[in-house]
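Researcher: Structure for this, please.
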Amino acid sequence: MAPTGQPFLLNGMPANGSSIAPGESVSVQVTFAPTTDGSYSTQLTFATNSGQPAAERQIGFTGQAAAAPKLAISPSALSYGTVAIGTKKQKSFTLSNTGGTDLIITRSKPPITAGFSAVNQVPEGTTLTPGQSMTVTVQFKPTSLGSKTSSWQLNAEDGGGVRTVTFTGQGGPPTFSGQWLTSGNCLQSTWPASHTLRAGTCAYIAGEAWTLNSKLQLIDGRSRACARETGKSAGSAIALVSCTSATDRQWTYNPATGHLVNKASALCLRRNGTSVVVATCSASASEKWAVRAPVSPHPVAAAALVNAAWQRCLDAASSLLIAPCTDSKAQTWTIDPFQRLRAADTGRCLDGGTVSLVTCSGSGGQLWTLLSTGGLRNDASGECLKAPGGSVTTLQRLVLAACTSDPRRRWTVG
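Model: Predicted structure, token format:
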């Protein structure tokens, strides 16, 4: 007799009264074909003339039915907006199995063009259990201007076909920050005395810190105002004005030629003595600008520097030493955009040649880098600031020594 419970179906079951000769066998195919979720069980009962008296036999069947696997992707499109050339941006999408059985990814072709690349992979053959999700991250790092697009193709054993996640972005102008130099002279802001630009000996001041941003605005680090070409003709001066999207406030920079070109007039920024004007672009050295960017990877702003060995602070009260930490300005330091270590109370800079505070300049002995290891390295000597050994006192001076993991040569920002 056939099993009474569905969805178990038998194929090849001998009819009642059939005989099986000695040494022969019969194969019966059992198919489990549920149409709804749930647990199923039944049994097959049959009798033979094997044994005296005739005996009944039972075979049990059980099965569990669940929803088919289903791949869900969210979102199916990512827009990165405008990203400056040389920088990068990351965004993510999610793969989920919203079905009731395991889902196998059968196709996975990540983006490899237009500056898009996978941060983490989805290998073909990846299995997602019911309810499982995975986050996939894609990076956009454009190498040229303009609109960019790419995609990630995915398929799975759910009958849904190939699905595509699309990525779009815009390659924007690169950002340049730091000192702008031509013929060894720095572009300088005259603010607040006036609202013009000039060229002069580099003094490592805030008025020499300029940023050409992705909006093509040349911004003064002191006033936060924008450089504007005033006359749209050769010889016109440059003024500092409020920043807007007007083309007379927009500049493009070509590192290969050194030209800084105003978008409204198509004229180049030129040093004319100590003045700065626009002129017809040429090969003149006075029109070749280079950017000396800040390079300190760990800038410090208005904070104490605490020695790891003694848990005392760098102090500039009378002479350079370490002392018990207080909230005084004598123990407040900054590493400015030009890598100078400045004392907040006097504005003077730490010089590595004498290990003392001096008037700030662009000397290499005044340039410092706070390393990721905690070392405070002088760029001129390559050595690190070291606290005294032995029994520390507030009168002991600091020295420069080779950079090591010695805690006396490590500093934390407090």
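Researcher: Any notable elements?
Model: The longest strand covers residues 38-48. The chain has four domains: 8-65, 71-172, 176-292, 305-413.
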